[in-house]
Write a sequence for this structure.
């Protein structure tokens, strides 16, 4: 007879699950990367809409597809700094990256 292993998270809240998972360094690193991608994606969306440019128009300027622009704006694409700079220029702006230190002496 095959036994089914019980899910240790069954019945727990999302916060409880997240608190447990956040102890894992690999999980934290993945979450931080996803958060950074989402932050950049939001900046691209905000810049595009502020510039009054549609996704299809930005795609034309970047010589890519509207679907690719959509992925960029949703955080579903891991972009290089060169790509982000190209997007900024296509919108009539520039990219300024920042490094923030969590802990410093």
């Amino acid at each position: 007879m095959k036994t089914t292993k019980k899910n240790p998270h069954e019945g727990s809240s999302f916060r409880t699950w997240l608190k447990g998972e956040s102890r894992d360094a690999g999980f934290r690193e993945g979450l931080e990367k996803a958060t950074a991608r989402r932050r950049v994606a939001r900046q691209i969306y905000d810049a595009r809409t502020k510039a009054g440019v549609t996704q299809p128009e930005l795609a034309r300027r970047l010589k890519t597809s509207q679907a690719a622009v959509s992925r960029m704006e949703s955080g579903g694409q891991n972009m290089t700094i060169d790509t982000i700079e190209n997007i900024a220029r296509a919108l009539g702006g520039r990219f300024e990256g920042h490094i923030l230190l969590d802990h410093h002496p």
Notes: The helical segments are 14-21, 25-50, 55-62, 66-74, 81-90. The CA atoms of residues 41 and 73 lie 4 Å apart. The chain has a mean pLDDT of 86.
